[in-house]
Design brief:
heterodimer, A: alpha+beta, 2 domains, 3-stranded antiparallel beta sheet, 3 helices, B: mainly alpha, two-stranded antiparallel sheet, about 70% helix
Chain lengths: ~110, ~425
């Protein structure tokens, strides 16, 4: 089995990547994961103010600032892409079939 | 910025000050745009542009106003940027990039500095930024307004506006919003977004009687820049024409805090020069034979602006222009305006029937101009009882005192 862990918070406490790397709980969690040999891919996301949402309706790409906020919808999948800039990410998102009835939230990876 | 007070000749100082002020209006956006283009750092670009203008105030009285102020300012700002980056270890990579573009800037004629403002406009108005941030960023980086001035213009606290600008610039960097003019396939929609930002700036200034008057002038200035930078696109010309035609009538829109409708405005006080320029601009746009919502709105405004009075207005033409606008940019507000034009062109019953269909559709529920328009048509049709009820309904929904006062005066006339 493969699982995706969606790590959620309200962003009131937002440690830097350095602080996170120095956090003993985080270190222990990573060490445990490596011991199990189970980590495929992980990425920290930039805060939600950096989010962009893409929808396609009637063949037209609709770009809006901010996160995907339809409370009756749920995360159905995720893809990590490497591309030149946000416009290319928007283009890729607009091509996904789910963009036609749901939406794709683009979040920059915090590196 | 303060003027240095060291010269014996105050007149010369005034002339230099005026030259710096003119350069600020004409060159600020381009200096910032060029620096963002070469460093990728928005804050650095703004700071160094600011320093270049301060340097101009300090040295132009002594050395004279340079032959090409824009080139002088860009070169000076670029040197400041290089100095700052040199002091910063992380600036090394940026410096290499900057060095490529620096060349021998003292000698380069102004024509060789490409106008980067178009990249700046499209980046400021990127759809991934919140709309209020697009407006603020455009006024700050392109028009050169200070954060305090923008905050005042939008009745927002200065720290809130500063925060909005910081967040927008951070998102551009962190989310990877590209600094470029969008490619052809994205251009129509992105250009519509830029025009929407400029038109909102104009309308913010237009709705105020005095306090925010500067905003209509800023919007017109930015629209002029866009027209110059995109000479083959008709819609920027359409928007500029629309702004000029509205601006020509602005002083007559209210009297003593009461709204004055188009019909009752003193047409002798309309600015004829602005109307002539707006009509000429619209003709240039229409000659390109690619229609768009701003050109159609400007054409409607031109019909009003060139009519001797309300009765001798080309209402059939306006009605058909609203039909065209409804096709290009469907909206119930456009349908309502169309109903008024149809009432004037084809008779009150035809217009009233359209208003009744709109009311039945529920698409404008709660919008005070729907019952107000209906009331007006009923009054003209000689049905005062029904008109009174409709005015009273409008009065309950009217959002501001200016509009309430207008409706009350109409009720009293019945």
């Amino acid at each position: 089995m493969k699982y995706v862990l969606l790590i959620c918070d309200d962003e009131t406490h937002s440690p830097s990547n350095e602080e996170l790397a120095a956090d003993p709980v985080h270190q222990a969690w990573l060490a445990d994961l490596d011991r199990r040999g189970g980590r495929l891919v992980g990425a920290r996301l930039r805060p939600v103010v950096d989010a962009t949402t893409v929808r396609v309706r009637d063949g037209e790409t609709l770009v809006s600032d901010g996160p995907f906020a339809e409370t009756k919808d749920f995360v159905g999948g995720l893809v990590i892409v490497e591309c030149a800039d946000l416009d290319e990410a928007i283009e890729i998102a607009a091509g996904h079939p789910y963009a036609r009835w749901g939406g794709i939230e683009i979040r920059p990876v915090w590196e | 910025m303060t003027s240095p007070d060291d010269g014996p000749d105050d007149g010369a100082d005034d002339r230099v000050r005026a030259a710096v002020d003119a350069a600020f209006r004409d060159e600020w956006g381009q200096v910032v745009a060029t620096l963002i283009g070469s460093t990728g750092d928005w804050d650095l670009a703004e700071d160094c542009a600011q320093e270049a203008f301060a340097a101009a105030l300090a040295t132009w009285p002594r050395d004279g106003v340079p032959h090409r102020p824009g080139a002088w300012l860009t070169t000076t700002a670029r040197h400041r940027a290089i100095d700052r980056l040199r002091r910063d270890a992380a600036g090394a990579a940026k410096l290499r990039q900057l060095a490529v573009l620096a060349g021998d800037p003292g000698e380069s004629p102004v024509e060789e500095i490409p106008d980067e403002r178009l990249r700046l406009i499209f980046t400021c108005c990127h759809p991934a930024l919140p709309f209020p941030a697009r407006v603020a960023l455009t006024l700050r980086t392109l028009a050169g307004l200070t954060t305090a001035e923008i905050a005042r213009a939008f009745l927002t606290a200065e720290p809130t506006m500063a925060q909005r600008l910081v967040r927008a610039k951070r998102k551009i960097a962190e989310a990877g919003i590209p600094y470029r003019v969008p490619p052809a396939e994205l251009l129509p929609r992105r250009l519509a977004g830029v025009l929407a930002v400029l038109y909102l700036i104009f309308n913010e200034g237009y709705d105020e009687e005095d306090a925010r008057r500067g905003l209509t002038a800023e919007a017109i200035r930015l629209a002029r820049v866009l027209v110059r930078l995109m000479p083959h696109e008709p819609e920027p010309r359409g928007l500029l024409a629309l702004m000029l035609l509205h601006e020509a009538r602005r002083p007559t829109r209210t009297a003593h805090g009461v709204l004055v409708t188009l019909e009752h405005q003193d047409r002798s006080r309309w600015n004829r020069a602005l109307i002539a320029e707006g009509v000429a601009m619209l003709d240039q746009a229409l000659a390109m034979r690619r229609t768009g919502p701003y050109q159609v709105q400007a054409a409607i405004a031109a019909c009003h602006a060139t009519a001797p009075d309300a009765a001798r207005t080309d209402w059939p033409q306006i009605a058909s222009l609203y039909a065209e606008l409804a096709r290009l940019a469907p909206s119930p507000v456009v349908d309502l305006n169309r109903a008024v034009a149809v009432a004037m062109a084809d008779g009150i019953p035809a217009g009233l029937a359209m208003v009744d269909r709109l009311t039945a559709s529920g698409r404008l529920e709660g919008y005070y101009l729907l019952p107000a328009t209906r009331a007006d048509l009923l009054r003209r049709a000689g049905r005062p009882g029904e008109a009174k009820a409709a005015y009273e309904e409008a009065l309950k929904l009217a959002p501001t005192e200016t509009e309430r006062r207008y409706l009350i005066s109409r009720l009293e006339e019945l």
